[in-house]
Amino acid sequence: MANNAQCNPFAITLSCSHHGLRPLRSFLLLFLTFLAFEGKAQSGTDGSSDSWIITPGRGYSNLSFSLDQRKAENEDQLLRQVVDQDKVNFRITASGGYALKDGFTVGLGLSYGRDREDITFLNEDSEEVTSRSIGQDISFIPNIRKYIPFGDGKFQVFVQSDLRISLGESERRNFLVSDVERIENNYVQLRLGVQPGAVIFFNRNWAFETSVGIVGLSSKWSKETVNNDRANQTRITENNIDLKLNLLALNLGVAYYF
């Protein structure tokens, strides 16, 4: 069958080419140009290498936003034939840190994510089933970073280790042929992760950051309730080791160092 899956034009992965990227590219180009000119204007006052290095007493804050959208029609997936799919996920993350010694910071992040999916597929009896789900979570992320400067310090790499503590909930409704099934899920998740990254300073204060997760150990405890039947609530415990490196899913953001 024809596969009409579409890649999100605004996704951080930037794994497709789309005309919808042009306004975003223009905005990013203007913003980065502004920072570059500001950095050049301040080069006379803080152009020494010491101005770039992370020294005791310095701190940082950053804010990032990610959006992932997927639409598909008549797509063959692993165990089912998808008739129509519309999926949207977004996440907002704010974090900050403080340097205790040269190139070493401790920090804390706060993240909020929300996801929604509407999908219609054919089950094993070739009957159409529609499923609609929505979920949200909030995460607290204590972390430490080790910075390694190169040259004058305008470019630095770092390794961040963090513990993500997440509280989440979701609801899914399956519209079956003769019934409607409602599934509620509440969970707590702990994830210990390592992510290397890089920082490019435009001036002493403004910088562009990128990172990618490579290692993750997680435990998740969830409670699942079907059609409000609390007496037969399902309890699930999951433990995972994630060693996947996805270079197409980089974390991108702008940071302010003070």
Low-confidence stretches: 5-32, 34-49
The SSE string, one letter per element, is EHHEEEEEEEEEE
Query: Averaging pLDDT over every residue, what do you get?
Result: 81
Instruction: Write down the Rg.
Output: 22 Å
Helix content percent band:
under 10%
Portion in strands: over 45%
Number of domains: 1
Give the terminus-to-terminus CA distance: 56 Å
Biggest β-sheet strands, sense, barrel: 8 strands, antiparallel, barrel
What fold name goes in the CATH topology slot? Porin
Could you say what the CATH architecture is? Beta Barrel
Overall, the morphology is elongated
The number of helical elements comes to 2
Topology, number of strands: 11
Report the top-level CATH class: Mainly Beta
What would you note in describing this structure?
There is one protein chain. This protein is mainly beta and 258 residues long. It has one domain: Porin. The chain is 10% helix and 62% strand. It contains two helices and eleven strands. An eight-stranded antiparallel beta barrel has the order 2-3-4-5-6-7-8-11. About 17% of the residues have low confidence.
Core attributes:
mainly beta, 62% strand, 8-stranded antiparallel barrel, single chain, 2 helices, Porin, 258 residues
SSE order and pairing:
Blueprint: E1 6-7, H1 21-41, H2 43-46, E2 59-76, E3 81-101, E4 104-122, E5 128-150, E6 155-175, E7 180-201, E8 206-211, E9 215-226, E10 234-242, E11 251-257
Antiparallel strand pairs: 1-2, 2-3, 2-11, 3-4, 4-5, 5-6, 6-7, 7-8, 7-9, 8-11, 9-10
